[in-house]
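Hi Prof. W.,

I finally got the Non-homologous end joining protein Ku prediction working! I wasn't sure whether to trim anything, so I left the full sequence exactly as given:
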Amino acid sequence: MHTVWKGAISFGLVHVPVKMFSATEDKDISMKYIHKTCGTPLSYVRTCQHCEQPVEWEQISRGYEYEPGRFVLFEKEELDSLSEANKEIQILDFVDLTEIDPIYFQKTYYLAPGDTGAGAYSLLLEAMRQSGKIGIAKVSIRSKSSLAAIRVIQDCIAMETIFYPDEIRSIAQVPNLPENPKVNDKELTMAKMLIEQLSTPFEPGKYKDDYREKVLTMIEQKVAGEEIKVAPEAQKTNVIDLMAALQASLEAVKPASVPTEPAEPAAAPKAKGKKKAKETVS
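And this is what came out:
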């Protein structure tokens, strides 16, 4: 794996040299924009609207618009100097993982011990494992300051960048939320039963990116020159009868009953004399 950052974890006066590696990878299928007429990939050109000419990277700086049309400019080195000055993951507090809402989490990194930090690394890892706590830290990566959660994953110390509180939008901004929600007791009972039927231990291996697999199959078919036909999916209708939808959902996920031995066929009932007489009358 490629090292994305080098520095140290600090808690109290303890320094743990570490190297950082990205724990996840983007598996999106990359495609280029193509000119339909000639089949040539399109390129993006940075153009100055005032000078009406292309601009090279060497001629570009960053700017903050503090008033409409007015900017203060920053060179890359100026911004980099703010983060380069502090190559440290500074643990501020230790908390319980359950106290952090998942909305705060951004991206996960694995931390490996530096060339001389194996002993301190192992000490921090085992202390965190036995305490059951995770560290809340500050870190600067690629000119961006971030909060981070330091925790143990198996035999590795991991860091998950998390949003600052003022980066989380208030739920009050979400439109059309019901103010005084009311639910039908019977529907609620059935909904809870459905949740119970669908509840299972989390097994990440069972989940697959179906869309990516379909795109890869389609790419292989196009490369092979095959004709592609995509079957249209059945249109889903709006739920009108919520109770009926819940009932049908429960029936669909209900575990199959154990088959039993077929019972002996019951003897046919004897016809009553009166009925028989009536049937024989011509």
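Residues 257-282 have pLDDT under 50 and may be disordered. Does that look reasonable to you?

Thanks,
D.
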